[in-house]
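Example (one chain per record):
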Amino acid sequence: MTISIRPLTAADRAAWEPLWQGYLTFYKAALTPEVTETTWQRFLDPAEPMFVRGAFEGEILLGIVQCVLHRTSWSQKPICYLQDLFTVPEARGKGVGRKLIEHIYAEAEKNGWFRVYWQTHETNAEAQVLYNKLADRSGFIVYRKNM
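Predicted structure:
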């Protein structure tokens, strides 16, 4: 399987949306079409700190990684939050997720980012097998309150 990773463009919207919806379904979440549209437009706006990369086999989109760059009080360099990672079911176990994460690592090194980090649900054991090979588990527990 030959995988290429690249930024998604406006022409990739139709390929991206089923993966985005698959990610939301996996986490039993639903968003309004307006939120999905805003998210997509942010990815395309170079002034936004959000970006998306896609893993392709030929012209077929097999996976996406969506990130947010932000400041941190721990460094003068920006930090990258790998917010969403999803591969189509038929690509799982074939190295697509690993290639997406490693691509973000390469971007981090090239651009001088301080850290790349992400979260996953405690029940996502399949993904944790990969994540435990690629990063250190921080031990932090996430608290949140929706407003």
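Caption: The beta strands are 4-7, 50-57, 60-72, 75-87, 115-117.
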